[in-house]
Amino acid sequence: MVQFFYMMWSLSLQNGRLLKSIKSHDAAVVCMNWEEDVLATMPSDDDHILTYEDRTVRFFPPAPRIPRMPGLVSGDTDLMDDSEDAIHDLSGAPCQRFNILCSGDKNGFICFSIFGIFPVGKINIQQLHLCTKFSRKETTYQLLNASINKVSLSKNLCQLVVLSFGELVEFGKSSCCDDLSVGLHCVLLDTSIFQSRKNELHQVAQQASSIEDLIEVVRTSISVMSKQWSDAMNLFHEKFGSLSALIVDHGLDSSPQDEFLSLLFGARTSPALHQFLVSSLGEAGLKRVSRAVDNAGKELRVVLNEHLQPAVEIAGFRIGELRGLSRWRARFQSMGLEEKLIDNVTEKAGMLLIQIERFSRVLAIVLYQFQNFFNWVLKCIKILLSEPTDQVQPTNSELVVLFIKFLLDNDPIKELFEVNHRIDVDMETKQQVEQLVVLGGFTDMKFLERTLACEFNQLEQCLKEAFLMPFTTISAKILCRDLLPVYSISTSPVSQLPPTSISYYKLQDEVNCAFQSCMPLHSLVDYICFKVPDESFGLTNCIGIIRGFTSNSRFINKEAASPAAVLLRIPDEYECVDLSLYKDNQIILLLNEAFSNSESPGKSWMVMIQTGDLCFLSLSNLEHDFYKLHDLKASMVDMHLENGKIRFIPHCVTKPLAVSASRGVACVFSSRRHALVYILDEDEDEVSDME
Q: Does 461 share its domain with 503?
């Protein structure tokens, strides 16, 4: 299974460390888009109603960190500390703006994550009903064997533009019609739920992501405690296990339990036990085991008091906050926050706190009995070494129970770390638990029969069920609103798709005023840029640009004009490697020299062109009813490099081209495996490039 790993850009660029991993995709991720709500700074009618304060900081200290695993060296712990600081910055920022990460994979799945860490939706482009109108007939299509090529969420989070490569067929059919084929298709998805419920989603995601971080602290704490105790018990059994072999060597018909019971009650010491205490174990060996158990007990108390218990307490409080939100049904039920599921999680969190309290008591008792046992064995060794007698004075008989338990592998601490172990509860305690149900106690009366690890697993499962409801509800509300076939090709499957890019620009005065009636809050229009495969239009070295697919969609405005498009032909001496929409209606093209050989490796150019200088044609005026861009061949525009801003690169480059509009830079990779960073807003003779 391919896991989807990503890093928070602002932090990963500083140290390159993995902050958080999310298993959202089962296939390779092809594209991502992280969009922040641009309306967050604008006042809303609901702002005074939904003003929300995270009250956790008022009642609790800072959340505990993940405990270190035993055996880590100092360098590893430094890495862990830095990553934990970054994770706290990700999940503990209640004042950050609402933002969503969209990611698409090669199997056609698109995942949505709030703040990039809390999954809130997932759709499969192959299962969507793609409704559109062709030949004046409303038809429903679907994409078969589709992969996601590019995704772009609008600035107001209401629409998602998806470029998907697949086979477009009428819904319910297994193969394409005669006039349809495999190709690139532009799909418009309605994601208005992110805008209409952004305040509610913000609150739920903030609490849920913090709870998930605390659950990770609990999981790691239990794992660390289990390993520390297991290491100490392995040493204990290693030292005391040799007594069984000595009993066999001496031909005795007894067990280690019998030998220590005899010693405990003043009987004569057998040769096997005498040899074990004086030679095999010895005073030094006993002290080593005693120190190991004592140190393990101290470490368990530290993890318990500083990590495990505080994490469960804070998580319980945050779950209670979600419980309160779930009771506001008018606001939160429509987005899938179910009160009954949250109530179940609340009860499981309370049960886990009781399990932690029980674990603390059992640990104290076991450590006390261990210390008494070690002191008694040490006393026996000293007596046997100093006196010729084979008898030892009897001592407290309660040690018998402890030692029999441990020699029979009935470790009460180990049992609490086992998931499938069942704890016996006396009848009186069961009756008391049943009486507490009448007074508002836990409805699950068998929780005392479960272990600490089992209770944690049940809490984790209940959390998954509770958080799955918003995930499922939001996913069901993301629907297709429009479809535009871009181009078709005859070869399938395609090993490598031509480059594409999607962006939103501010409207210019010369742009059709019909755009302005579609997005009154923010005068933005979408641009979709793509390289046309040579076999699609019967042309070579051509790129296409579509303007106004979302703003002129019938979903946005039923009276809006049709989207406009233009085809741009690149001179034959150049080959388009990659492209990217930039800013201010600009497009960056990455071109290689078309004719190069081993003796002459070739050169490259980075060209900036203005879309405002191009003549766009309305797609509604074209005769072709399906792939309308086919009819643009006659009006194709030749690109002249001298009309654009050019950067010369003295060697060939490869994909990808990375462009940052906010920073004004572009990054390309040369064939020599060098990363080249260029400042786009400066002239080539005014600033030197950074390599």
A: no
